[in-house]
Amino acid sequence: MVLRLPLYGRHPLEPLTVDDVLEYPAMRRGDPVVIAGAAGLGRRVRWVHTSDFLGVADLLRGGEVLLTTGAMLSDDDALLTAYVERLADADAAALVIGLGPRFSEPLPRALRDAADRAGLPLVALRRTIAFMDVTEEVHSALVDMQVRELQASESIHVIFSSLAVQGSRPEIVLKQVAKLSGFAVVLENREQQILAFDPADRSRGDVLAEWAEHSKRPPDARRTFYDPQTGWLQTRVGARGNDWGRLILFAGAVGARQIEGAEDPTMSIPRSLLMLVEQAASTLAIGRLVDRESELMDLSIHQGIFTRLLADSIDPAELDQQSSALGVSLRRASVVAIAVRPRHPGRADPDEHRDALRSLTVAVAEFARARQLRALTAPADEFTVGVLAVLPAEGSAPLLASQLAQSLLSRGLEVVLSASGPVRGPQPIRAALIEAMETVATATGLGMPGPVVAASDLGVHGLIYSLRDDPRLRRFSDQALDPLRRYDREHGTALVTLVRHYLQAGRNKTVAAQRAFVSRPWMHERLRLVGEVLGADIEDEATCLKLEFALAVADLLNETDPAEERRSS
């Protein structure tokens, strides 16, 4: 198990700094004193080098503490300044000069001023020590640290590889990150919304408050980076060039909060901690890919069942055998057919529409899994998600549809649902599924309110909508209303509107007159005229039923003349 990184204090794997080196026993025996460049005491130390060679800067690779007696240094201020500047350019960590035969206190002002300008720690050893003791002690510590980093890296790799193989949920992965680091961790999506988080030792409210304060900061172009202003260590989450989230470790106590010059703040973070967040991000990305591939496989298999069931193109016994292998027996189980349709399905981009329908399918499938329902879920057509669910022992179709609607609404998905059944057998189930699909299509087209609609809720308007493409329906409406329409056009009257008021008032002439803002005698006279135009008794129930149905068809087919509502006789 990797060592836990505490919230406060120095972790054994944290990078060694100049300040740390000055505290080593071998160095303390030399009675070190910082003469200049104190601002650079937090510089990372990669190695300790001993040399009096004036051109040593050309041999450095960065991060070295240079120990020297200064025996080869000149008394010329310009040369001393150039010496320090070359060391700073080579990214040396510090310059340590042993006082003795060459220099005594104080060191030359040129050295001190140059070190202050470069932020390069200039340290004087006031007692003579063996430089070898310092190099041996520091190098042993550095090697030991590298070994422990390798061990920590191996532990991290093993832990998160195991989580990836197990298909652990994001909450489990984040819990492990918090446990190993001791820091709060947040997983957010591309819209900067929290998907999951673990507060570690902090309160949930405190973590959420800090996240809300800094989450809208502009993103960095780098994949993994440390922001010294927030103390957040962040890395992108995704694979195959599709980054879908960001993992944030609230690691303020580990990274340097004051970064000078062009140094990358991320370099102040222990490598084991960088590996921890990057390995966790990879595990999350792999988990999502596996989930998606699994969902796509299930989707494809289930959709095959729906396609064959609706096409009625396969032997019922074979179809039942295939569905039974997926946990839903069409012959033996009581099956509820549910159709789910987005309330606003129209999308201009076919890819966006397909992705939206797939997301809805996944949400419905997750509802079924969460309630341990035996169910088949897949797109039944280009707008509708179909569900064939085995009805629980103490459940009902309306209750199941209502629970599903509430679950989808909690995800921000506005849908219309219809449930039919329970029924047994491939043919009854097929009929129930078709009924549910037609019901949601009609309810969506009519703009009916409410998320759950039954076939019985559609009424005559639902029947008209389902038959709207039948030319006989239009012909029936035209034959019933055209005489009145022609008379209105020729005489500037509004007999169609008058009939509408009469029928909507339940054939009560007094109420109809009030709604039309006319007198009752006038209403009597106009209704008599309607009867003459139609050549029928306007008070006859069959005639009224015919007109009412014809008006409903005209309204649905948008054939009512808008001018009718504005004209008055």
What report would you give on this structure?
By secondary structure, the chain is of the alpha+beta class. Helices cover 49% and strands 14% of the residues. α3 runs parallel beside α4. The longest helix has 41 residues. It is elongated.
Number of helices: 18
Category by helix and strand content: alpha+beta
Query: What is the overall silhouette?
Result: elongated
Lateral arrangement of strands in the main beta sheet: 1-5-4-3-2
Oligomer description: single chain
Strand content: 5-15%
Question: Could you name the ranges where pLDDT drops below 50 across 5 or more consecutive residues?
Answer: 1-13, 257-262, 559-569
Radius of gyration: 40 Å
Q: Summarize model confidence as the mean pLDDT.
A: 76
How much helix is in the residues? 40-55%
